[in-house]
Amino acid sequence: MRVAENLNSALLDLLAADEDVFVLGEDITDPYGGAFKVTRGLSTRFPGRVLATPLSEGAIVGAAGGLALAGDKAIVEIMFGDFAALAFDQIVNFASKSVTMYGRRVPLRLIVRCPVGGNRGYGPTHSQSLQKHFLGVPNLALHELSPFHDNARVLAEMLAAGTPAILFEDKVLYTQRMFQDGRIDDLFRYDFVGAETPVARVYLERPDEYDNVIIAPGGMTHRALTAMRAAFLEDESSSLLLVPSRLYPFTLDPLLPILAGARQIIVVEESTAGGTWGAELAQEIYPRLWGRLRHPIRLVHSADSVIPTAAHLERRVLVQDDTIRAALREADHA
Amino acid sequence: MTVTTERRLSRLAAADLDTMLLIRHFELGLLDLFEQGKLNGTTHTCLGQEYIPVALGPLLVDGDHVFSNHRGHGHYLSRFGDAHGLLAEIMGRQGAVCNGVGGSQHILRGTYLSTGVQGQSLPVAAGVALHLRRGGDPLLAAAYIGDGTWGEGAVYEALNLARLWSLPLLVVVEHNRIAQSTRTEDQMAGTIAGRAQAFGIRHQRIAGADVNAIRELLTPLVEEVRHRREPAVVEFDTYRVGPHSKGDDSRDRPLIEEAARHDWYRLYAEDHPEQFAPADRRQRDRVAQIIHEVAARPASAWESPCA
Q1: Is residue A283 exposed (0-12), middle (13-18) or buried (19+ Cβ within 10 Å)?
Q2: For A137-187, what is each residue's pLDDT tens digit?
């Protein structure tokens, strides 16, 4: 099953199981079914609760916040995550604040789905990774789509928390297959670490034999795997890959024993430079592992640049598998 | 269409007059507390506009949602009469509606909610109206906004949704001729009526402060929003008698005098002196007593979820 199909089926199951679930967004109804076809079929099955909206990101998220305030569960699709900037006030100043600013806990079950990321040639305003812009907002959880995490469980976790949440969906994942049964290919296996919000752990032979540890959100999975494969075959360097579903707040505890055993920790993300998720994660890790780290944590992210449209230019700005491969090589020679 | 109520204000039921006077003395009390340095932060009083939520009060039912704004004390007091809870919220004392976290402009109580960002509430109110529409009961979402709020794009996105989706949304505009320090004619092109018309949304403008007449006029309109599930905009042509927040009134003297001439408080005292004087005294004393009581309370407690 492809990742987009898994997400589609998770949404369908939610709508079927709970009459208080709404899905709102631009061009999401059939026959179009959304710009990336993630909502295909939903409006035909649930016409009153899957609503195509005008081009009004602020009002869409605001109305979803109103539904959530009234006790419903609302899921918004922002066509391109970049447009979430138009809904910043509703996300940050209304939905997230409302959970606690009235002096008692007000649960708001609201998910804002944001297709993000580049390598598709959509250009500077349709290719960004906006995760960093929403980091550190009280009562706003950030998740990222991954080929490991079943979206039925991810969406359920986001709604159960009773706080607004954003699901960042790297567009390159939609057409990839979901990994299953702990096996990725002839080389890599995976399992999950942590109970509350499981982190996928990808390893070679054994999960406790590795040189370096890469932490990367779901969208970087395939690029990281390609780099890890090359590092192993060419340099006999073995790496562990950790892919969290929830980026913020980040649950570090279950990962500490793993991270403590790394020659080097590398945090990889597609975000452009400056104020990144990786920097946030590194500052959480440092005090916990101070004295046990053998090298500084290495941050791998895209360049400090707008994201160009032309393929050869875009490729230069964004993190690619060879960027991660180079980081692994440097780690091995550190 | 504008309806102007008679200059001579009709006699109010005692309870209505009491609520209007409670709001008036509550707001005057706040300004006084600020002058004495006893209030933290800022606040926005609704002096001169007290009659609007009082007129709307009985037209709204318990299950209706009310969205208020930065200038919301009158909205709250007309709905709940709870001056102790509101003052405790503003002063950060025990018994505060929201434990002192929200303060003057962020209040949630039941289906009543205020927020401090202009225009933010209208899309939220549209979402609540969508919820109510689906529920089947004839309930509505009412949102108070000002003339300045019409500068925000969120207003138009919400009006568009409300009309497209036939939402029971009542937009109450308190057009007090000024947005903080900027005169409406310097910040609004065209009219609110024209803007409502552009969306095919019914608009009613009301000048004058006769509560009974306003109620009579609005009763069928509110019922239509409720039962036919169509949005409507009601625009009150009103006057802000006091400053934007505290001591920041930069209007020319003639404008301030014009506002004072239209102040319902003065007009009603003229029209019904025998009813007004004792009621006014009672509410002034009552508010003084409430301030005394609340100021003596210990600080409010908040179990911060982030601690």
Answers
A1: exposed
A2: 999 999 999 999 999 999 999 999 999 999 999 999 999 999 999 999 999
Is A93 close to B120, i.e. CB distance below 8 A?
yes
The DSSP code for A180 is B
Which residues in chain B have their CB less than 8 angstroms from residue A93's CB?
Answer: 115, 117, 120
- A64 neighbourhood in chain B, CB within 8 Å: 127
**ipTM reported for the complex, 2 dp:** 0.95
Last residue of a domain, one of A141, A173, A205: A173
Strand partners of residue B183: B178
**Which superfamily, per CATH, for B2-295?**
Thiamin diphosphate (ThDP)-binding fold, Pyr/PP domains (3.40.50.970)
Cα separation, B75 vs B67, whole angstroms? 9
CA–CA separation, A48 vs B135, rounded Å?
Answer: 12
Q: What is the pLDDT of residues A27-64, one digit of tens each?
A: 999 999 999 999 999 999 999 999 999 999 999 999 99
CA distance A168 to chain B (A): 23
3-state secondary structure of B176: coil
B127: nearest CA in chain A? A63
Which residues contact residue B25 at a Cβ distance below 8 angstroms, ignoring those fewer than 6 apart? B283, B284, B286, B287, B288
- Closest C-alpha to B207, from B199, B197, B217, B198: B217
Interface of A with B (CB under 8 A): 48, 51, 53-54, 56, 58-72, 74, 89-90, 93-94, 97-106, 138-139
Residue A110: strand pairing partners:
A74
Q: Is the peptide bond before A249 cis (omega within 30 degrees of 0)?
A: yes
Angle at B145 between CA B142 and CA B150, to 5 degrees: 125
